[in-house]
Amino acid sequence: MSLTVLRPSFCSSSMAEGSEFTSEVESSFQKFAVHGDTKATGKEMNGKNFAKMCKDCHIIDGKNVTTTDVDIVFSKVKAKSARVITFEQFTQALTELAPKRFKGVSQEDALQQLYGLVVGKEPANAGVTKVDKAAAVERLTDTSKYTGSHKERFDESGKGKGKAGREDVQDTSGYVAAYKGSGTYDEKVKEA
């Protein structure tokens, strides 16, 4: 028993016309599919990344298309027991979202406009901490300006030596961790 997926006729014709357009959409699909998952191959996208793609590409506008609509469409196009969608299912999802996002436009034009939102987009990293470039921070982290005993904690390249750069490292090789007279026990026993 073979399972065939029925697509609207305009979907296959518009895909055939702009094959480079399709490859750009597929490139964006792959970028969002691997976002946040080190084991992802880019051939399948999970629901979280699909929702992120819809948000980052401004498919979700809050009025016509909401996050709930995106979740419903994702559940509709995926296989019953699967948690991910393929690129073909992804195009089906966009086909279903296009008329909702762009009302009053023919379905083919709405799909092309939706593809225009997706093409060339990558996952945005919102809320990522940026490195501070303030003069005070730069001055404090410049190891070439350190003097005295602090200078000894860094090698020529400015990389820290760690414990090896300290002079006050205690010898803890004795019988007890805080025992400072390692190897003097025999001498003390002979004196008594």
Report on the structure:
There is one protein chain. The protein is mainly alpha-helical and 192 residues long. 46% of the residues lie in helices and 2% in strands. Helix 4 (67-77) packs antiparallel against helix 5. It is elongated and about 100 Å long.
The strand line-up of the biggest sheet is 1-2
Name the average pLDDT: 78
User: How many strands appear in the DSSP assignment?
Assistant: 2
- What's the helix-strand series? HHEHHEHHHHH
Structural Rg: 31 Å
Q: Helices and strands: which structural class?
A: mainly alpha
Q: Based on CA inertia axes, which overall geometry fits? A: elongated
Low-confidence stretches: 1-18
- Distance between the terminal alpha carbons, to the nearest Å? 95 Å
Strand content: under 5%
Q: Tell me which oligomeric state these chains represent.
A: single chain
Topology overview:
Elements lengths: L8 H9 L1 H15 L11 E2 H10 L10 H11 L6 E2 L1 H15 L5 H12 L16 H6 L7 H4 L33 H7 L1
Antiparallel strand pairs: 1-2
In short:
This protein has about 190 residues and is mainly alpha-helical.
Search tags:
192 residues; mainly alpha; two-stranded antiparallel sheet; 9 helices; 46% helix; disordered N terminus; heme binding; metal-binding; Cytochrome c domain-containing protein
